Amino acid sequence: MDIRTRITAALKTAMKEKDAARLSTLRLISAAIKDRDIALRGDGNDAGVSDAEVLGILEKMVKQRKESARAFDEGGRIEMAEKERAEIVVIEDFLPRQLNDEEVAKAIEEAISTSGAESIRDMGKVMGALKSKFTGQIDFGAVGPRVKEKLA
Known about the structure:
The protein is mainly alpha-helical. Helix content is 76%, strand content 0%. It folds into 2 domains: 3-92, Hypothetical Protein Yqey, Chain: A, domain1; 101-151, Arc Repressor Mutant, subunit A, CATH 1.10.10.410.
């Protein structure tokens, strides 16, 4: 089952169960996907967003909420920070399992060898290989410096 179908099913379930917090987050997810669909339609792509693009949208939403929760914590708005963290939990239900450090290291080694990267100039190839295979499973902000270190 694709991600969009899983989100729609979860939305219906949240409506039936009258789970307001989960429902509002699922509606935000659905709206973000539809916004991207509309933007693609303007570019002539009527097929809509792919699962990989949906994963990217979800990752971006999680990142935004983590930053917001941190800002709310710093501002003393604990109840708002908790709301953001609750939304993160709902969004992460649709993301694949995150790789642990050993798996990330192995993925980096594999991407370097398959892309034929030899120097720091080949970092884009390595990151592209990782993104094509591990979207949603790796924090690319944290992986970038590790790839750079391997290629240096």
